[in-house]
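Minutes, project check-in
Item: structure for the 115-residue chain
Input as provided by the requester:
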Amino acid sequence: AGVPCHPTGTQTSQLTSDPPWTPVFLPEKVMLTCQGSGVPGLTEWYLDEQFWQHTRSDYIYVSKKHPGNNSYQCCSPGARLSPPITLSFSNDWLVLQVPVRALVEGDELLLRCRG
């Protein structure tokens, strides 16, 4: 099948999460979706900058049994590695959530309180 991740690909893979907030409560599941060039093949997933697994689909579900945070990246077939997103998992009673996507100076920041 070849290597899906192409450092010379013209497009960069885009990684999104649903829900698009962090931290999330244990043991909630988060769906990560990898969008790229649309070429058929396996999607590569990276956990804390290390190769993690291949999937035939462009999405994966992640959850944790213990509090903590991890960095996720993906590589769509024929595309470059995505920028990382960090997901935190919490067992607190109350969390102040922020968007997973990267923000730049001047962006409006929406905060969400969940209990």
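Outcome recorded: The chain is about 0% helix and 45% strand.
No further action items on this chain.
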